[in-house]
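Possible regression after last week's pipeline update?

I re-ran a chain I had predicted before the update to compare outputs. Posting the input and the new output here so someone can diff against the archived version. Not blocking, just want to make sure nothing changed silently.
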Amino acid sequence: MATLVIGNGEPINNRRACAACRHQRKKCHEDCLFAPHFPADKAEEYKAVHCVFDMSLMAKMFMGLNEYQREEAVKSIIWEAMLWQKDPVHGPLGQYKELEREYESLQEEFHQLGALLLKQWNIGTSSGNPSDAGIL
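New output (post-update):
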């Protein structure tokens, strides 16, 4: 059987209890599902996840995933939990809406600049062709 390692490359049997086991004040066993994803130095991330998600349901979900899928799920869960911690009312939706507003603002600015360039091209040449004005 291969030796399991945590994020810093340290073998699991030579480590401190993971953040999940430490939070529950229990011994962290070699087969702990949370140890690779929530080592002792990631206690704040674990606390955020613990406040938002039921850990027993997460454990059941982890059982059905391969290691890569589990790692991606943990990244997503941590991201969502941190956003809920940052914005308890809107959570990830608040972040999405903020990015959507920023995108729309940038898109509007892009169209305004395009219109301004077109106007400048039309002023610089009577034909309206940008290449006649030496721009292109």
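Follow-up from reviewer: compared with the archived run. The chain has a mean pLDDT of 84. Marking as no regression found.
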